[in-house]
Specification:
Length: 307
């Protein structure tokens, strides 16, 4: 086990166990206990309990929804609002929506254009998080950005998705307002990366809530690069050594900035994508802060809606 993995485990050990999270929470490589037969040099037999890896899928990640961050149905009554500005190449959000439904999330989605700032603010009153999938031209004005910042400052999660240049127009506008974030450039990816063995090297941050059950992840096709700053923590470094995804987790507020939205619809069945999407949504609920509200929301009956 690498030093990074030990550090991640130590960090999570002090965190409280939360009902919405699975037993595997913050374990990139979940383990199970097996009783094995051991024979010593004299031929005597005894049985020992040993920790072994759980079964893996064909990509090397733990097999089964029980190794996601959240248990199935954990977030019934919670709504993910989506500003979906890039809809080319058959990108209809059906695959992420199906994955999110396993954890109980409904989806309220605007396609191709932004609602008015007033309508956005009204809709966000019923959402636990906002996802923004950027296009190549700005859709959001300063009033929209003020609504999103108010939502973020209240502790509700924000996922900001961009991709290779120029598909980060609104991503950069929102990221700058929230935490002075930015993505740039265009790099070929199309590779699967594994757990980091050293800081700043290609791979996933091990043993974080976001990387529960993830030892391997597909990075996307052509991807942008997140520019590091003091507010962001690196999450995924791509095969070229560029920072593909980073997260913000300060003062009770959470966000993710990602330069590879192609993962949401291209090569979806490649390593780790569905689990990562579910983990991200579960983490952005900010259950550690809003636990009582999350439980109360289960009495609602939300429906998926699109505009």
């Amino acid at each position: 086990m690498t030093l990074l993995m030990f550090a991640g485990l130590a960090l999570f050990a002090s965190a409280p166990a939360l009902a919405q999270y699975s037993r595997a929470a913050a374990e990139s490589v979940p383990m199970k206990t097996e009783r094995v037969k051991v024979r010593d040099d004299s031929g005597n037999v005894r049985y020992e309990k040993r920790k072994v890896r759980v079964d893996s899928d064909k990509w090397g990640n733990a097999a089964g929804n029980q190794y996601d961050l959240a248990v199935d149905g954990a977030f019934e009554g919670q709504t993910v609002a989506v500003l979906h500005f890039y809809t080319g190449e058959g990108f209809d959000f059906s695959l992420p929506k199906k994955a999110l439904a396993q954890k109980g999330f409904s989806v309220y989605r605007w396609m191709n254009r932004a609602p008015s700032p007033e309508k956005l603010e009204k809709a966000l009153e019923k959402a636990c998080q906002l996802w923004i999938i950027s296009g190549s031209t700005r859709q959001l004005n300063d009033k929209h950005l003020a609504v999103i910042k108010k939502f973020f400052d209240s502790g509700k999660g924000v996922y900001i998705w961009g991709d290779n240049q120029p598909y980060y127009a609104d991503a950069n506008a929102v990221a700058k307002v929230l935490f002075n974030g930015q993505m740039t450039g265009n790099l070929m990816g199309n590779q699967t990366v594994s757990l980091q063995e050293e800081k700043g090297k290609p791979g996933l941050l091990p043993n974080h809530l976001l990387t529960t059950g993830l030892e391997y992840i597909y990075e996307g096709i052509t991807i942008a690069t997140i520019q590091p700053n003091d507010a962001l923590e690196p999450l995924i470094y791509g095969s070229a050594g560029n920072l593909v995804s980073a997260f913000y987790d300060h003062d009770g507020k959470r966000a993710i900035l990602d330069g590879g939205f192609t993962r949401l619809y291209i090569n979806w069945d490649t390593a780790g994508t569905a689990r990562y999407v579910k983990n991200a949504a579960a983490w952005l609920v900010n259950y550690e802060r809003f636990g009582d509200e999350v439980v109360a929301a289960k009495h609602r009956n939300p429906k998926d809606e699109e505009e």
